[in-house]
Fold Aminotransferase.
Amino acid sequence: MDLTKRFNKNLNRIEISLIRQFDQAISEIPGILRLTLGEPDFTTPEHVKEAAKAAIDANQSHYTGMSGLLALRQAASQFVADKYNLHYRAEDEILVTIGATEALSATLTAILEPGDVVLLPAPAYPGYEPIIKLVGASVVEIDTRAHQFILTPEALEEALQEQGNRVKAVILNYPANPTGVTYSKEQMQALAGVLKKYQVFVVCDEVYSELTYTDQSHVSLGTYLPDQAILINGLSKSHAMTGWRLGFIFAPASLTAQLIKSHQYLVTAAGTMNQYAAIEALTVGKDDAEPMKQEYIKRRDYIMDAMSSMGFEIIRPDGAFYIFAKIPPGYNQDSFAFLKALAYEKAVAFIPGAAFGTYGEGYVRLSYAASMEVIQEAMRRLKEFMEEHAGEH
């Protein structure tokens, strides 16, 4: 019996992440230096781990409510108020999720229907589009390359006008994966001025909010567009807790009352002992990201200097932990081919820009969530590669 043709036909519209495909393809190369995945090389702070152990010892191993522990939602409410001047009620405007990924899945499956359009500034993280396609909606990319990967109010307005009532949502990720760019207060206000004229949801992926490197702290669109914004955040990047799978949805009570339905039937609730660890992270450890951030800045600056000297064009990242670099003229502009050669010849792995959509081709993304020693050796090998291949194309 062949049941393969009875799957959801929308599965044919998606594939396994090109990031994961490429990373897996080169992982067996001996001595490979992988600056590929967006995972902090730091470990979860000790006090957070101790809080989880204490919860286990106290037999905190039963279900919590679907929204998550009230104490955690209170901690999350206080955290975003203190850090970003955002105000969400713990009782009915915050949901605890299994990472930011589940928060996105719960949100997008709740708001989208077949035929809907989602606007996405590109190049963009490739995790959004598959969820959108699974529910029968589609993505329209907005090319941001001409404006240093920043979505301008003019480009946003043009896309909203062009797509009309089909647009159900806009996704904004800041600081952004893969480019590392983020938005100033003035830029946020300008985007909000456009969006408030349209009956659309704005899904704000702010999982890198604690890794903002500008003098101005992280600015959330939720400040200027509270009725339309659905904020996604989590502890994976800020507290080096990728494996704990702890995320959050922040939204007005009227929206949260609907979002909890999809969240409930996807997962019931986040892990209980993990939630106790998260309370510790957001209270005692609310500034745990600071030493990591300082180290990321050093690594960013080192890579920018090294790659710029090799001819790569780089827009300075103001957050996250990625460099998105344009392959210099005279080299293979096929990002997969360029990086496959680099991996097999020099045992250095980045992610092809084409993995981030139509407008990522010709670029490479590397993660500097790796030790300085690894980064320095990777840059040395990259320089050799660039010298050996100069002028071939």
Summary: DSSP finds twelve helices and 13 strands in the chain. The domain at 46-285 is CATH 3.40.640.10 (Aspartate Aminotransferase; domain 2). The two ends are 51 Å apart (CA to CA).
